[in-house]
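Trying the structure run again after the queue cleared.
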Amino acid sequence: MFLIALDLDGTVLNNRNEISEENVKAIEYAQQKGIEVVIATGRAYFDAQSILKKVGLSAPVIGTNGSTIHTKEGNCFSQVAMEENVVKELVEWLDQHQYYYEVFTDKEIFTPKNARNLLMEELDKVKHQNPTINTNELKEIAERQFGQEGYVFIENVSDLFSEKHPFLNVLTFSFEKNKLEKFFHKFQSNQYLTIVSSGEYNFEIHSRQTSKGIALENLSYKLGLSLEHAMAIGDSINDLSMFEKVKYSVAMGNANDKIKAVCNMITETNEENGVAKAIYTLSLIHI
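Done. Tokens:
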């Protein structure tokens, strides 16, 4: 039995945060052929599950970059939380330096009440510095970021710690490259954190003890499957760890050159149903 691991954003999802009918049919085809299709995403489980439910799909979900693993039936059998004091240091720094950020738990995504206004201010600043830039495209990127399920808006950082939560992932987002570089320089050597990216304008931070790749190994073991003939499809830096675990690593056509360089296959873009084409290619090889 084979396994296919699918990223969501920029991979299964098109630029409107939708799973196309072609991709749905291909996933269902694979499942009917006995292939275990797994979603591996930086999104929270509840958000990913909502996306799948809208199109009638059911699959195991690796969420928040490997911090959670849920079975097809929705049972959580693995959850790796960040240390609370590490999260506190991280978000206090982000808040102090006026970054947009989101803090993921098992039930919510916490974000400052004024955070979206902050991003729009950044957008105006970028436009002022570079009048030729396509701000409509950047606005669409921001809207896709805001399109997740489960947001809870907080007044200040202390609200995060008024109750006990399993902190699974922190995302920071900025249209200013120098701000992203400043953040990375500050936290890249932190021994408790892994920093990855799922897009040009963000960083996603989670426990050093997990990744999509580690979670994929754990899930395949639970399912009694080998990764020797597995396929992983993605488009971003946070997909690298699972590319390393499988035989067939597939970069989306919209992935950057660094991702394409490490993969042994390249499919079409997320707007051209690249996932469906990769699934059918695997079927030709193995079924």
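The two ends are 10 Å apart (CA to CA). Worth checking whether this holds up in the mutant runs.
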